[in-house]
Design a protein that fits this description.
- The structure is a single chain.
- This protein is 78% helix and 0% strand.
- It has 18 helices and no strands.
- The longest helix is centred in the middle third of the chain and has 30 residues.
- The protein is globular and about 60 Å long.
- The two termini are 27 Å apart.
């Protein structure tokens, strides 16, 4: 019963962790409401939230050594709940930027801490299943909140912020559903089994963990190529307008969500071949998008890519949390969240730079560069039998 309460609490909180993306549909209306604000200033609503999410992700690991993980997660939810304030206070644009600070901080605290909380209470297949649900429900929450936010924005930009009422509800439910866990370091005192097991595990700075974190960064770089170049690629190749690229990106998200929900079953079948096959799946999706210049190619390739991405993300989270010392998991997940955000942000600069060396059509060429990365990583994992060796180190 307690485990089911914990699962329900985690799922509810996972669902709202990326709720801040729901304000993006209202940006144009906010710009109309504050005509004195320039376009670049308007985008600060999103970029400030992204920056604070990154900083909060880094801070989350240290915070978990000072207060309980439940406190950190619920603090994040409370920060997101402050997103309701523009429904009451609509004084000026600066106030909206202050709200964005809390939204980014809340999202960063939650996304960095929830995987560590899962790792604390779930082992083996149950952990893979919960991490898969994290991938699935987080993606589903992002899609639904953006959709709902767009509908609310029709009635006025301030109503878009009503979606953060859901964060307040999640905060209240989390208070009752999550266990009152002690601070992580205190919890491990006297637990001899955990201490003995930890002796055979890795610190955050170990080469094994660094390599896994690097894989996670390259993974988000690959998905960044998809989201940043889809519309341009569709336009240049005459595939369709923004509605077509929007559909393709939505289908990509559906692939990621589906992969998260079936991740534990996929790992049962593929075992230590999960990573290289999933990277190969991503490469196949990119190839279809880049070569088959038709709507079916755009949509089908995006879905296939999403399936591979969701599986790799879940598998990497499992491997990192299983290989780290228990007291190092919070910091490991903080770095995971922060570094993957950086990878997503800087991917266009790197990929477009490489693509520009051999093509003027950066959008389509970037897909080919990403394809090469995915193939290279899949080959490296297969040749070195890397995943099997990593699984063998899990105690």
């Amino acid at each position: 019963m307690e485990k089911k309460k914990l699962q329900l609490g985690l799922i509810i909180l996972i669902f709202v962790a990326n709720i801040a993306t729901g304000i993006t549909p209202a940006l144009a209306k906010i710009g109309n409401a504050f005509p004195e604000v320039g376009r670049s200033q308007l985008q600060l609503i999103i970029s400030i939230a992204a920056l604070l999410s990154f900083l909060a992700s880094l801070a989350a690991g240290k915070l978990q050594s000072l207060v309980s993980q439940k406190t950190v997660v619920l603090t994040g939810a409370a920060f997101l709940g402050l997103g309701c304030l523009p429904l009451i206070v609509q004084s000026n644009f600066t106030f909206l930027l202050i709200v964005s600070v809390f939204l980014g901080g809340g999202s960063g605290l939650m996304t960095a801490t929830i995987p560590a909380l899962i790792a604390r209470y779930f082992e083996g297949e149950a952990r893979t299943s919960m991490l898969g649900k994290k991938t699935g429900y987080q993606g589903l929450g992002t899609m639904l909140m953006t959709f709902i936010g767009g509908i609310l924005a029709v009635y006025g930009w301030q109503y878009n912020y009503a979606i953060f009422v859901i964060a307040i509800i999640a905060f209240v439910l989390g208070l009752f559903l999550l266990p009152n866990d002690p601070v992580l370091k205190k919890a491990k005192e006297g637990e001899r089994t955990a201490v003995e097991s930890d002796k055979q595990k890795f610190a955050v700075g170990s080469l094994t963990v660094i390599l896994l974190l690097t894989l996670a960064v390259t993974l988000t770089m690959l998905t960044s190529v998809l989201s940043n170049n889809m519309a341009l690629h569709a336009d240049i190749k005459g595939i369709g307008d923004s509605s077509v690229s929007g559909l393709a990106l939505s289908v990509n998200s559906l692939g990621t969500i589906l992969a998260g929900f079936v991740a534990s079953q996929v790992v049962k079948v593929l075992k230590s071949n999960t990573l290289w096959i999933s990277y190969l799946l991503m490469a196949g999706g990119l190839l279809i998008i880049g070569v088959l210049h038709a709507k079916v190619g755009l949509v089908g390739g995006s879905f296939i890519f999403g399936l591979g991405y969701g599986t790799v993300m879940t598998r990497l989270l499992y491997l990192i949390t299983s290989l780290l010392k228990s007291t190092s998991v919070p910091m490991g997940m903080s770095l995971f969240s922060a570094l993957t955000s950086l990878g997503f942000a800087f991917a266009p600069m790197l990929m477009n730079g490489i693509a520009g060396l051999f093509s003027d059509n950066l959008a389509t060429a970037s897909f080919m560069v990403a394809l090469s990365f995915a193939l290279g990583i899949a080959t490296l994992i297969l040749v070195t039998d890397g995943e099997k060796k990593l699984v063998g180190k899990i105690v």
